[in-house]
Give the backbone structure.
Amino acid sequence: MTLPRHAPVALTSIRSVSRGDGTDVHFHDEHQILYASRGLLSVTTDKGVWLTPGARAVWIPAGTPHQHNAFGALTIHTVGLPDVPNPAGVNSTSVVTINRLARDIIMELSEVSNPGDAAAQRLRWVLLDQLTRSVEFPLRVRRPHDPRLILISEAIEQDPQGVSSLDDAARLISVSSRTMSRLCQADLGMTFPQWRTQLRLHRALELLADGWSVTDVAVHCGWSTASSFIDVFRRTLGYTPGRRTTAA
């Protein structure tokens, strides 16, 4: 199947998107960086799902098939960048931290009327320089390939509380707990609890973007208390779920 190629990168834009809106799978000839100044953006490739809460942006290398979806009332800033080696030192789709200058440049470039003019090109090179200071952030939810793990992933997405242990997951696909552990390590490179936490945090971020309270999110996503959810959230994302960070 031939994927659609979206316009090469004078592709800069700012868009307000309603919850649930998204794109079909496509690719670009140049690198892209996507930043959500409001709401939550998810970017999906065959390697997983990346999320952009707080002072984070998604780097998508040139030629990478991907699609994205909105959670909450989303304002997305898109900037196309020259097809040069990845300045952040990451050669695949990644969530990266951005400083205040990088954020301001992204927002400025997303609104310029003539993204191909000399001033916009100079801003792009400054942005590339700023991205050399970025740090890759662990906000990928790994996508399984084994059909049995896909079944478990769908079950957790539908009911994050429902698969609460390794034994629960093993029973769901009629294997032993030891086999379940081996499947996770072989397909995902992590333990079942680590993967389940990724899936639950992903769902938690979606619900927070939709305006749910921290307590309701904690209960729905399977944490025993709001404080335990807040602790995991802060250790993983670097801030508490009750606030949205901005670039430093």
In short: The domain at 5-137 is CATH 2.60.120.280 (Jelly Rolls). The first strand starts at residue 5 and ends at 6. The helical segments are 100-109, 118-131, 147-158, 166-172, 177-188, 192-209, 214-220, 226-237. The chain has a mean pLDDT of 83.
